[in-house]
Amino acid sequence: MALQPLTLAFHGAARTVTGSRHLMRFGERRWLFDCGLYQGHRDEADRINRAFAFAPGELDAVIISHAHLDHTGNLPTLSHEGFRGPIHLTSGTADLSRFMLQDSAFLMQKDVEHVNRVHGKKGHPRTPLYKMADVEDTLARFVTHDYHTPWQPFDGVNVQYHDAGHILGSAMATFEFTSEGRSLRVCMGGDLGRPGRPILRDPERPPGPDVLVLESTYGDRLHGNERDTNAALAEVMTRTIARGGRVIVPAFAVGRTQELVAVLHMLIDMGRVPDVPVFVDSPMARNATSVYKRHPECFDDDTRDLLAHGGGTPFGFHRLHYIESPEESRALNDFRDPCIIISASGMCEGGRVVHHLQHGLGDPKNTVLFVGFQGEGTLGRRLRDGAETVNVFGEPVRVRAEIASLDGFSAHADQKEMLDWVLALDPLPKRIFLVHGELPVQKVFAALLQEKTGVDVRIPERGEEFDLWTS
Ligand SMILES: [Zn+2]
Question: Fewer beta carbons within 10 angstroms: which end of the chain, N or C?
């Protein structure tokens, strides 16, 4: 028997931050690691998400790192295009993905209806990328795995999940391949979380991989420590409330919102932020919070202690209101007193936060506070970069509100946290592939990694394939 071929090809999140899709092949078997949505301008995104550079029906499996849509959101397209294999994931990821994928199909349908209405009879009517039936098809293929319990998807392949500490259920997967007396360990990192954050455990370190695929979102930046971040949060809240304004926080519904609520709870209890109403206006955030509550096995020791000793839950406190209906959401526009509104989507490209911005941007008493990454071309990025006027729902809006931004709430490790995580791997990998980052950032991080570790670091292009045995 000859050595089984072992290759890895990067079909998404290559020199960009969304659309993770990595094609792995061992012998006759081929599978995808993650199948995320590419997010960007509507037409371009649609084209990229519909096109697979391989036949979905020929894939034997998909293995998923975590529930964010840029890692799972294109699974229903894969099902629609003929994929019939199992989808492996942790149970936390499965529970989050159920409603996130349903919500994704729902939003796509709404978006298509809106665009077709605007364009009327001109041009081709659009169709959504996928429908609810494709989502149901996808959900039926889920096979869940616990952390630290190895499983064998195929002969000669052993896989084990470790906690990535990024969002609930997030995992990195370490593959062990054996063929003809040789073996190779490959760690697919997914998104790497941060040490010392509330709720979730710190990112774990798998036994030293030969090859590491690592994200690089914040490869050129430091987030600042927890104390500084909390102080900056308290300051921005306090000065906005003092001038009688509202703080609008566009936040990812899954992960960021839960963490922010936990920290606000603490700061208000300590008297560091005035006691004003906090509204979480995102049905998805509400669902995500209920999934978090069902998975205490993912919590760090502090959160477990808090729950065990009746210290309340970090996910809800008496000042917190979850907004249900669109009517309630709109009614917030008439709420006169200072308040804090946390709403999705995180990059302001849709969701209820858009109407809060339309209503709130023109008032200099208010603050829009960014707590997450703002991708190129998004409304969030334009606001954060200081645009004086932006288009909201197709109408120009003057920006008079304060624009503030805090990187410390990121669910992604910063430059130093990623470097420290790599340096503690034992032994160090022989090769590192950087994915999930914008190219200029990746170049900075690659140079630093190479200098500090001596490891061969590559930044693959989309579609580039590597033989892992020889790497
Ligand atoms: Zn993520």
Answer: N
315-326 burial, b for 16+ CB within 10 Å, e for fewer?
bebebbbebeee
> Do the beta carbons of residue 103 and residue 67 sit within 8 Å?
no
- Cβ-contact 219, 445 below 8 angstroms: yes
CA of 270 to the centre of ligand 1 (A): 31
Beta bridge partners of 465: 9
Q: Ligand 1 centre from 214 Cα, in Å?
A: 12
Q: What is the CA(5)–ligand 1 centre distance, in A?
A: 30
Query: Per-residue pLDDT tens for 390-435?
Result: 999 888 999 999 999 998 888 899 999 999 999 999 999 999 999 9
The CATH-assigned architecture of domain 226-409 is 3-Layer(aba) Sandwich (3.40)
206 phi/psi in degrees, rounded to 5: -75, 160
Distance CA(209)–CA(452), nearest Å, equals: 17
Closest CA to 262 of 294, 300, 223: 300
Q: How far is the CA of 72 from the centre of ligand 1 (A)?
A: 10
What is the mean pLDDT for each group of 10 consecutive residues in the chain (471 residues)? 94 92 98 93 89 96 96 98 98 96 92 82 84 98 98 97 96 97 97 91 95 97 88 97 97 88 90 95 89 89 76 71 93 95 90 94 98 88 96 93 92 96 96 97 98 97 96 64
According to CATH, the topology of domain 6-221+411-467 is Metallo-beta-lactamase; Chain A (3.60.15)
| Model confidence pLDDT, tens digit, residues 87-101 | 999 999 999 999 999
Give the start-to-end residue ranges of the domains of the chain.
Answer: 6-221+411-467, 226-409
166 C-alpha to ligand 1 centroid (Å): 7
